[in-house]
Amino acid sequence: MASSLISRSHHIDFDSVFRFDDAGIVQMFESLVSTGLMEFLGCPAIFHEQALIEFFENGSVRDGMVVSTISGTAVEIRESVTISGTAVEIRESVFAVAFGLPTEGLTDLSEVPRDLLSNAQKLFSASEKEVSISCLKKEVKMPFRLLSDILAKSLFVKAGSFDAVTRDRFLLMTAITFDVKVNWGNLLFGVLKEMVTPDSRQAKGYAIQICVLLKNIPGLELGPAIFSRVDQAEQLYFVQSPVSPPAAFSHQESSSSSSDVSIHFDSEDLLMRNPEAAHTSAPVDSNVSTAALEDLRSYFSKRIDESTYELRSKVNEVEFNVRGDLVKQQAWLRQTFQNACDILERQSTQISDLKKGLVAPVGTIFQDLFDIKKNQRAHEAKLNALDGQVAALRNDQLEFQNRISADLLSLSTQFADIVEFIRGGDAKKGESGSSSRPPPVRVERRPLPTPQSPRDVAGGSSAVRIPTFPRTTGTFAERVEQARRHILESGLVISVEEAAERIRQADIQESDRLQRERERARREKRSSSSRRRRGF
């Protein structure tokens, strides 16, 4: 981790770069001085490796302040902090004063005036065409001439997506180029807080600057210091100028940089000042430095163009195709989901309407069935009561018939005695009367014919029709007498017992007929109720 911290130190030795013979490079670094960032980027290049590692591993943000622990000592960068019992004030203003940072101006780069953005889009384009900054990677096709790329690289180190970082760099360069006031104290302090935020994608930079802050805290032991060497810490970023088409080189290296161009100088390419001899100046051969810079610029420009042009084109094409396919697939999935939701909503609406339409008829049907069942139960109760009454009446009738039969038997006996008495008297009178008087009519007792069924009566010609007599009324004795008289008038001889038996059979048949009619009426009512329930 220490090597990565040192590689992201973003340190500039302004005394060395100002000796370059390239006026463009000197002007670029002078523009950084005018922004007030000279002390921030050119602070002493001293690293405390162990302290930096503990600072980032234990760092967090609490209530807008940076909190960490180094060697068991609590370190808080906020407005007011206590460290090992000693009060230390490292507020945002103190942070700005420590590096001479401006505290006035824009705190949000998106507030850069639109007219300056339009001018910068043409100025930063190598072909002088307007550059698109829509935050869509596939639309960023024009290479930038990054006038102040070293500052952009130090502030925005691939924290978010490629497009957002590129746009922030563009806004930052626009503000620097057109001398827009920026509150660097607030901006850099905010980036520092993002570095120690857990799960943040902000790269861990500002190694030298953090060491300067920690060194000013009294009572904090930082351990041994490491003076950065030229081949470890010096990273210079230059303006890329339009050059001729790239030529082939034997030394090829893959590059995955974004729209910026970075050039790394080591101790063999360029003689730089050693931090241990920071206060001693050695004469610099300007011709050698200029020639080396020109050769390196030409070499790296061609190498970068050759290695990245075709790769970027292919990557952009593949990304464009993949994005198009993803957009189509997303649109298809969204449309399919919307169609499914519409179908489900329509079905739900139809089911709701059907339920609403069936509530009233179903309620009416159930009410009718309930009423029918209630009436049926009432009728069944009445029929059961009537059956009980009929059974009681039949028992009474049988008892009455038995009594009547006994009475009729007694009457018939008496009647026979009277007839015999009358016959005996007539016989005596006949013996004393004239012999020419006609003999008396003899009345014979014959059994009543057995009643036949209607089938036998209505059958063939051989069936004998039994004479019927009209309905009798009155008491049982009166009815018996009426039946006997009717039979005698029809030419048949019948006794009183036979007439009484005929009356009893007629009553039984009438009772059976009435019972059958009631059963038939009950079955018809039940069948009609069942047909109504089935919907016929």
From TrEMBL:
Region feature (Disordered): 426-470, 504-536
Regions of compositional bias (Basic residues) in chain numbering: 523-536
Bias kind Basic and acidic residues: ranges: 504-522
Name of the molecule in the record: Dystroglycan-like
Organism: Dorcoceras hygrometricum
